[in-house]
Amino acid sequence: MRINLMETELGAKLGKRFAGLAMVVEQANLPASVKELVNIRASQINGCGFCLDMHTKDATAAGEDIQRLHLVAAWREATVYTPAERAALALAEEGTRLADTHAGVSDATWAAVREHFDEEQAAALIMQVALINAANRMNVIAQTPAGSYQPGMFHQLVNQ
Question: What is the pTM of this model?
Answer without folding.
Answer: 0.93
